[in-house]
C-alpha cells in the first residue's frame, strides 16, 4: 500500500526549522554582547546623579562602550538575510532603543541639544534607509528619545540636591521643546503613543522642580529674568 503523505517533505521542514533556530541563536548571542556594552555605558553614566564634576569623564567612558556596539551591529547585519530585517528585529529592538537613549543622554550632557537620527545611526554603524538593509528604525529612534525625558526629570531633581539650581531650568526648556516636537507627530503606533502620553508626567515633574527653585529664590537666571521684566522702560 502506497503512502498518502510523502514523509520526505518533513525532513526538509526539519532542516528549515534547524537552520532558523541556529540563526536566531546566533542573533541572540550578538544581541547579548550589545546588551552587555549598553549596560556598562549606563553604569558609567549613573555618576551624573551623584557627582556633577564627573559628567565629562562619564560621557567619555560611555562613548567607548557605545562605539564598540557598532562592530556588533555589523555582525548582526551579516547574519540577517537580505530583506528580512523586520522578521528578526524583535531580538534587538529593545536594546537599540536603550542605546539611542544613552547616546541622546551623552550628547545632551556634552552639548545640550537633541541628537538626530542620522547621528545615532552613524555612531552605531547603521543605515537610515530601509532600502539599504540593516537600518535604524524611526520608531525605535523616537522611543529611545522618549526614554531620555524620564532620565532628565530625575537628573533635574538630583541637580538641585547637588546645588546646581540653573540646570533644571535648562532641562525644562529642552523637555518643553521636545514635548512640542512630539505633539507635531500623528502617532499611530500604540506603544509609541502610550510612551508619549507618559511624557507629560516628566514635563510636570520638571516644572515642579523649577517652580520650587524659583519660589525659593535659588536660581540666578530666574532672578535676572525677573529683574529685566521689572526694570522700567527708558523713555
Topology, element by element:
Layout: H1 8-45, H2 55-79, H3 85-88, H4 93-111, H5 117-124, H6 138-161, H7 167-183, H8 190-215, H9 220-230
What does the model show?
One of its GO terms (biological process) is RNA metabolic process. The chain crosses the membrane at residues 95-115. It is found in: Cytoplasm; Nucleus. Mg(2+) binds at residue 151. It comes from Drosophila rhopaloa (Fruit fly). This protein has 235 residues and is mainly α. It has a single domain, classed as Up-down Bundle (Methane Monooxygenase Hydroxylase, Chain G, domain 1). It contains nine helices and no strands. The protein has helices at residues 8-45, 55-79, 85-88, 93-111, 117-124, 138-161, 167-183, 190-215, 220-230. α1 packs antiparallel against α2 and α2 packs antiparallel against α4 (93-111). It is elongated, with a radius of gyration of 24 Å. The mean pLDDT is 90.
Q: Please identify, by name, the CATH architecture.
A: Up-down Bundle
Structure summary, number of beta strands: 0
Low-confidence stretches: none
Report the major sheet: none
- Approximate shape: elongated
CATH topology title: Methane Monooxygenase Hydroxylase, Chain G, domain 1
**CATH hierarchy class name:** Mainly Alpha
What class, by secondary structure content? mainly alpha
Spell out the helices and strands N to C. HHHHHHHHH
- Looking at this structure, what is the CATH superfamily? Translin, domain 1
- Radius of gyration equals 24 Å
What percentage of the residues does DSSP assign to strands (E)? Answer: under 5%
Transmembrane segments: 95-115
GO molecular function: endonuclease activity; hydrolase activity; metal ion binding; RNA binding; sequence-specific DNA binding; single-stranded DNA binding
Organism: Drosophila rhopaloa
Binding site for Mg(2+): 151
